[in-house]
Amino acid sequence: MPLKFYSCLRRIVMTKLIIPPIKCQGIKTKLVPFIMEHAACPENGLWIEPFMGSGAVAFNLAPRRALLADKNEYIIAFYQGIQNGTISGSVVREFLEYHGSLLQQYGEAYYRDMRDAFNENGDPLYFLFLNRSDFNGMIRFNRHGKFNVPFCQKPDRFSKSYITKICNQVTRISQIMRGKEWQFVCAPWQESFLFATEADYIYLDPPYLGRDTSYVGEWSEEDAVALAEWAHATPANVCLSMWKENQFRTNPHLYEYWSDFTWYEYSHFYHFGAKRSNRHPMTEILAIKR
Ligand SMILES: C[S@@+](CC[C@H](N)C(=O)[O-])C[C@H]1O[C@@H](n2cnc3c(N)ncnc32)[C@H](O)[C@@H]1O
Q1: Residue 282 and residue 267: Cα distance in Å, rounded?
Q2: Shared domain check, 267 and 198
Q3: Average pLDDT score over residue span 200-211
């Protein structure tokens, strides 16, 4: 098949993707078609994600039954809010229109006020506001658990079209959740493994070792090794997302702890800034148990 056909097909698949309203480092939106090709939604069992992050994978796979967990309580509270109806497209619109216009008026000072308020109240709508107007959609907390990502430096961030885009994302997620048996849980990853059976499928997307993980607290070599041990011991099927290599190095942890799983590779480029010379190749894999 000609290359043009594939890039066209890829564009069609990408435009149909569900984009979550929350952004996070390591978000897998781009890899969703690849994940969907290899990972299987269990027919009767649970789809389990101990590191759900933005939820991009689960929202696109849309399993009937799921346990979606993360250590980040604000992400979980946000999706629980959508599930129980306290957060909807119209609630989000009203909130972002109000605070977005104050951001336009007062700029960075207002962003800082919102950040201080969030660090006091922990409100998931404040979290959304910060996540969608901070630097690169990052999530990061300091040692005391306080959100500390700087402003994106665009006072007019919450334009009408940007707010509409976010509200549509919220509405779409709420439609996907409807009628599904989904549970959102704030918990350390070990808890998601506790009741897994062989009918279940666990998708693992842990923080990457050797990268900045201050957005979640530490992710140590011991955590990574323990996760590999639990993944091997559980009766459930397991699929791990992990980086394999970039132009500078390969990931030794993968070879040491996951080489008995079947690996499927996906190569892409990531960017630093707009310059072409700042495009770097990266190979990621899905490692699947059986
Ligand atoms: C790479 S991100 C997951 C990205 C996700 N697959 C997506 O597409 O958005 C890793 C997630 O693991 C969570 N996390 C980190 N340490 C954790 C732990 N010990 N237990 C549970 N979740 C943890 C972080 O809060 C973060 O949301």
Answers
A1: 6
A2: yes
A3: 88
